[in-house]
Amino acid sequence: MSIETQIIEIAAAAKAASGIMAAVPRKQKDTALMIMADLLETRAEQIKSENQKDVAAARENGLSSAMIDRLTITDKTIVAMAEGLKFVAGLDDPVGTLSDSSIRPNGLEIARMRIPLGVIGIIYESRPNVTVDAAGLCLKAGNAVILRGGSEALYSNLALAQVIAQGLADAGLPDAAAQVIPVRDREAVNILLKQEALVDLIIPRGGEGLIRHVVAHSSIPVLKHYKGVCHGYVDDTADLDMAVEISVNAKAQRPGVCNAMETLLVHEKIADDFLPKLHRAMTQAGVTLKGCEACCRMLENIQPATDEDWAAEYLDLILAVRVVPDMDGAMGHIAAYGSNHTEAIITTDYDRARRFVREVDASLVIVNASTRFNDGGELGLGAEIGISTSKLHAYGPMGIRELTTTKFVAWGAGQIRT
Amino acid sequence: MSIETQIIEIAAAAKAASGIMAAVPRKQKDTALMIMADLLETRAEQIKSENQKDVAAARENGLSSAMIDRLTITDKTIVAMAEGLKFVAGLDDPVGTLSDSSIRPNGLEIARMRIPLGVIGIIYESRPNVTVDAAGLCLKAGNAVILRGGSEALYSNLALAQVIAQGLADAGLPDAAAQVIPVRDREAVNILLKQEALVDLIIPRGGEGLIRHVVAHSSIPVLKHYKGVCHGYVDDTADLDMAVEISVNAKAQRPGVCNAMETLLVHEKIADDFLPKLHRAMTQAGVTLKGCEACCRMLENIQPATDEDWAAEYLDLILAVRVVPDMDGAMGHIAAYGSNHTEAIITTDYDRARRFVREVDASLVIVNASTRFNDGGELGLGAEIGISTSKLHAYGPMGIRELTTTKFVAWGAGQIRT
């Protein structure tokens, strides 16, 4: 069987399964997730031994230790996957809920009903836990899911796929509702991306290269996020101690993630006062500053920032700092260099807080708190499947609700149109 | 200047204008729309004379009288466009409104704020009124819009574009917020469809050929609707007089539109009773029936339907009729031949009404009323810019709200993540 035939068969089976999943009651979906959670733990040894095949091959092929680390399934990974499934089982099911109800002058009762999207394709890199995490959320939202992880994780992903399929089958659900593509060839991805009649949405998870490849080749809608170049802006009315504390948290609490702050913009009126405090606190947190000309005049021993620094997603203990004449200067900088991810203002001024929130174009705009809060869990969505920085359908963290859509429903008593 | 340079300049100017439009207060947008409405009427003669150039060329080129009819701007068209703009000015502005507010355990206050999508490209055929109708809705929602109508309507569209630009300028808004592409070459469309860094959404309006071309060539998300193969299902528990009245309305009230019914499915238990009544009423309304084998046995003088009839969007006074064993048979037929547009059930049974509404996959599912209600105005959205039959972002009629999205906003008091 050619790869193309194989992918089309998988997608067609997913499409058929999605029709069944859409009408399944919550309890059946939750039961499937709970069975999968149990199976992960009872089959832990088998899963780890399949994973060791991938890890051994990765070592042979000279993959970096960071990549091998991401690839490795430990007992802790298994517990985390199982807990994640149980958590998703406990979340409310949005499917079938009504909103925006109205009654028309002719008596027709209108509402929007939440429904699954249909078939979702997830394309990701070497972390095998994505297989379970993404499947759990997609299935809970009533979708079918096609999973395509990195080829270096194929044994691991197939072992996890067996657990998922068993959970579905034991709960009386079609096992084609969650399928791992059992093909290493990269061509499989490109073929999947052309099945717009069978697949409703593609979510790529991974580095910018993967995402650009998916966007360039997909004829299916893609929900994506390229990078997080997140800013803080310290207004001249800010509480400076709060500004230091938030800045250190935004930069250093977990520097390797997309909602970490990369550039701090400082109002010139308080730069004299604020920058030495910031410098001390950042140095203590192990953060190196790279500053604009004004910063370099005010602080000793900091590197000058170039235009490249303003655009950089360091994902590291480095912070670019720029003095700006006012909030408009900060907003102009953000419009030029931001990535529509997360933007924070520290201020005590009512009008500026309002204007910043309304006018800055980012998936989360936040006042007097850390950029690190742009996360599905922190914003109250429960679990998340990624963060969208493009605007159509979802902008920001995507939870269960973002894996659904709404249709219109109407109840009549014989109404006709005149 | 090459066409490519020209299109990129237009798109870049639209992008810049969209940043301004996003923050404009409602009053200024409404003022612009009201000025445009006035200008349409004061410049009516000039607009009609530009339109006559297009009409004369269309005649010379031997375009069909239906096409020339769609192309022609009359006094009535002008009044309708002006009234449309005034109506949109009166609609609520969704931009900046908050929803889904919650307070997190750490005190962070979260909400979603509605914001414009950014730059919207509208690609349409020969009706010049789309220029004004689409621009009005996109601008009211705070977007910039790029309009690309049929090349046979270029003089008309440029005259209307002047009115729109003047209205924007007189209200103190950037005239680049609404631009008509002044190029006849079809290459202009293909270039526009590749500007994914500058354009956020493409909405094609027109025949299936246009839409398939746009989908195949766009690297920008597309909201589309191919066709409306809408069904009615008459349950054995239906009020048969109501079923006849709704069926005649759904088929014959305006047969040439996408929400007209194309196939009627009839429960076999009541077919004997119902079909002769239906046949009489449809004949009186000028509708020809094409029936399944069972229909042809029960009714005299009707044509047999083939598999092609079940898939047909007649847009004409023709109705395909099929007897089905039960509601599952009807739902199976709809799943196989429907186009995710509008599906109606006529029933008095509680469980079947519920199941049909929940399980049928269409942008509107309606009980005991005509399919003709799938329309933005009828469903209470105010004006509409089209009907989406794909699920991402919008499913069903798209009003102002569907031309916006939401971002997350959060108000804190110094919260950091631990």
How can the largest sheet of chain A be summarized?
7 strands, parallel
Oligomerization category of the chains in this entry: homodimer
In percent, how helical is the residue content of chain A?
40-55%
Q: What's the CATH architecture name of the largest domain in chain A?
A: 3-Layer(aba) Sandwich
**Strands of chain A, total number:** 16
Strand order of the largest sheet of chain A: 10-9-11-8-7-12-13
Evaluate the radius of gyration of chain A: 24 Å
Write up this protein:
The structure is a homodimer of 418-residue chains. The first copy, chain A, has 2 domains: 3-223 and 398-410, Aldehyde Dehydrogenase, Chain A, domain 1 (3-Layer(aba) Sandwich), CATH 3.40.605.10; 230-373, Aldehyde Dehydrogenase, Chain A, domain 2, CATH 3.40.309.10. In chain A, 44% of the residues lie in helices and 20% in strands. Chain A contains 15 helices and 16 strands. In chain A, the strands form 4 sheets. A 7-stranded parallel sheet of chain A has the order 10-9-11-8-7-12-13, with helices on both faces. In chain A, strands 5-4-3-6 form a 4-stranded parallel sheet, sandwiched between helices. In chain A, strand 4, helix 7 and strand 5 form a beta-alpha-beta unit. The longest helix of chain A is centred in the first third of the chain and has 19 residues, at 3-21. Chain A is globular and about 65 Å long. At the A-B interface, strand 2, helix 10, helix 15, strand 13 and strand 15 of A face strand 2, helix 10, helix 15, strand 13 and strand 15 of B. Strand 13 of chain A pairs parallel with strand 16 of chain B, so a sheet runs across the interface.
